[in-house]
Amino acid sequence: MKVLGLDTSTMMATCAVINDERLLGEFSLNQDMTHSERLVPMIKEILDNLNMKVEDIDLYGVAIGPGSFTGLRIGAATIKAFAHLFDKPMVGVSSLEALAYNLPFNEIVVPMIDARRNRVYTGIYTWEDRELKELLAPCVLPIDELIIRLKDFDSVVVNGNGTLIYREILEERLGKQVSFAPLGLNSCKASSICELARIKYEKGQLDDYFTLAPEYLRESQAQRQLREKEKETS
């Protein structure tokens, strides 16, 4: 089964193609360009290099959040269009689950994506019988509250762009309890999206391209401003 996976939940745009359990190609780019500018050319380049077309893909996977509101919409819209146009199955994958999947067989894995205002999108995961299990569902937490929760564990491994922003406080408050992922495993990887999409597909966990929507976990700035304006005029 050939799977195309995308992740545009952060500044890193990444796409990959796997065939069953073999990685055919992966492209990741963290550059001062919008996802709308670079995503489709990235997909075209990786498929061209594999002598494949979009319609040759058997399953489409995409990160559905949390993360950048605009990035998530672009990634989801792209995959939904492919699935609709070529009548192929698709699967939405949590960007936090995909980050945790980068770190196989660690006891406690804690991905963190910056949510601004001293908060992170996060979850807590562990590996059991070679499967990634969820201990804390994806949520948005103040970094101080997350650190308090992590003190309950003997050791944790963290990754994601939130760990770069809050590394100093994590080291100060958790000390030797916390370990940081190496550079290559600290960012979103489309190959993880591909693998998780295939696993979910095999379990019958498919999504509908008409109803799939990003999981933002909080209101956008525009939504908050509108709600505050409505309160003022009511």
Describe the structure concisely.
This protein has helices at about 35-50, 70-85, 95-100, 145-150, 160-165, 165-175, 190-200, 220-234, and strands at about 1-5, 10-20, 20-30, 60-65, 90-95, 110-115, 120-130, 130-140, 155-160, 180.
Can you describe this structure?
With 234 residues, the chain is an alpha/beta fold. The chain folds into 2 domains: 2-95 and 188-229, ATPase, nucleotide binding domain (Nucleotidyltransferase, domain 5, 2-Layer Sandwich), CATH 3.30.420.40; 103-185, Nucleotidyltransferase, domain 5 (2-Layer Sandwich), CATH 3.30.420. Helix content is 37%, strand content 29%. Strands 3-2-1-4-5 form a 5-stranded mixed beta sheet, with helices on both faces. Strands 8-7-6-9-10 form a 5-stranded mixed beta sheet. Strand 1 (2-7) and strand 2 (12-19) form a beta hairpin. The longest helix has 18 residues, at 69-86. The chain is globular. It starts with a strand and ends with a helix. 41% of the residues are buried. The mean pLDDT is 92.
